[in-house]
Write a structure and sequence with these properties.
Layout: E1 33-39, H1 45-57, E2 61-67, H2 69-79, H3 83-90, E3 93-96, E4 113-119, H4 121-128, H5 135-145, E5 150-154, H6 161-172, E6 176-177, H7 191-204
Parallel strand pairs: 1-2, 1-4, 2-3, 4-5, 5-6
Helix pairs in contact: 1-3, 1-7, 4-6
Amino acid sequence: MGPGSCHDTGGQGPRVRHVGRARPCSRRGCILKRVVLGVSGASGAVIALRIGELLASLPDVELHLVVSEAAKRTFAHELGPDALGRLVEFARHNYPANDIGATIASGSFRTAGMIVAPCSMRSVAAIATGLSDNLLTRAADVHLKERRKLILLARETPLHLGHLRNMVAVTEMGATIMPPVPAFYRRPETITDIIDHIAARAIDQLDLGQPPLAVEWDGDA
């Protein structure tokens, strides 16, 4: 499935607005929008892969990637040994999770926002308590302190009270908790339909100045 792919299923129309491969930011006055994608070890590697693919397809967007050690194992288990390499190819910059001196660890490095997808409960807890023990959680902490958009695709079920309290805490600090819940009202016919919609909705939360990626609901049953 390429960056510009979409699906016409059940007469409902595509789940994701058609986008093509991004062109370099070469015109005069062009300002790149830097977006950080953090990938934790929770299940749902395919969501991270699709988000990276869509972000790479957007004009004037520069993708900065950090993948936790646990996420590398999840990627290999869920998508095979070559999948992580495909995600890395979409990024302009790829940082080791232990590189706490990377540019995205500093508030002076301006970004348009950060998505953590999937976001494990361990990562939610670290972000909620300001525990910046790796580059992913440090970058998330920077986005909170700089009042930038932070979208967390929290992936766990069922949830105990500690999980819920941590999600309340990060929400109170300014993050958006966005569990990767399928939109069944769109009548998805494949897993790809579901993943496309989740990925598009997550990117739309950043409000990058692009037309919405997720096709809007028109009210038809």
